[in-house]
Amino acid sequence: MATKSVFDVPTEQWAQVVEENDVTYKKIPVPKPGPDEALVHILYSGVCHTDLHAMRGDWPLKHKTQLVGGHEGIGVVVAKGDLAKGVDIGDYVGIKWLNGSCLSCAFCINGDEPQCPDALLSGYTVDGTFQQYATGKAMHLTQIPKDCDLSAAAPILCAGLTVYKGLKESGARPAQFVAVIGAGGGLGSLAIQYAKAMGLRTIAVDAGEVKGKFCRSLGADAYFDFTKSNDLVKDIKAATPDGLGPHAALVIAAKEDPFHQATEYVRPRGTVVCIGMPKEAQIKASVFDVVVRMLSIKGSYVGNRADANEAVEIFRAGLVKAPVTVVPLSKLSEVFDAMVSGDIIGRYVLDTSK
């Protein structure tokens, strides 16, 4: 099949490549799009904790060798295959975690593409967006309005989409309370804002007063520093007017304990939504409590194509502002170091031109 393009596409590019649990900044060939794919000149790419897990091999899911990570990429379509539908040369688009799916299985037909058994994962099973040019299945690219701040829009493709989907999965209704655990990070800071846009009230939990000020500035109704609280379960319950606790909890933590705690402070019929995926973590809860208080414990993965469009539109409307720090693509290893030390507030975004 022929590839269509009106752009002068180079044959080599700069990329961050995973080699022996580390990243190497080097030149690699520019990929060619398949018949149903588009080639996207990546301008910005957000950095997700998933990228760190992939580099370190934390999960029981094999990734490709010589991996180019990244799954929050925004750029312009510069070439596409003859069978690529839904995008045109020159469109601004986003490449998400879900790079492609079969579109014909029972999950895809019902709009649950992330559960497709043949799903392709950007920056994991296929090369992602920590490079200047990346390919994606055309039907899974997300259109990005040209009036958006592209660097700030990049985290919406995973961080924003993931928490937006989690809030929908929580079943929380306007005026109800949702606890956001890990609220000062890239996902948590967006969760506070999406919750507010959806009419929900938030109880933010993280470490340190700097993150506390940050969470309150985003609209959190309450903030608790888990490193200073003598009884976090009691504090979170007391933050709701009736003292019964939040209606739901979004747990975005990188450690195991917060998942256990969430089952203790959500109110009867409350929902614990597991989003963070700490290495080898288990979630434990009293069966008696789960039954008697009729709790729901569920996982929430990434959203589908419709969820992505909704998340981007909420951002475009100005209801969500992604707090980002833009650094050169060459500085990815330094971003990972900051992740490990817990020093990140908001989201880091890579500028691929540097």
TrEMBL record:
Keywords: Metal-binding, NAD, Oxidoreductase, Zinc. GO terms for cellular component: cytoplasm. PROSITE patterns: ADH_ZINC. Residues 20-350 form the Enoyl reductase (ER) domain. One of its GO terms (molecular function) is zinc ion binding. It is an enzyme of class 1 (oxidoreductase). SUPFAM superfamilies: GroES-like, NAD(P)-binding Rossmann-fold domains. Its cofactor is Zn(2+). It comes from the Eukaryota. Belongs to the zinc-containing alcohol dehydrogenase family. This is alcohol dehydrogenase. It comes from Pochonia chlamydosporia 170.
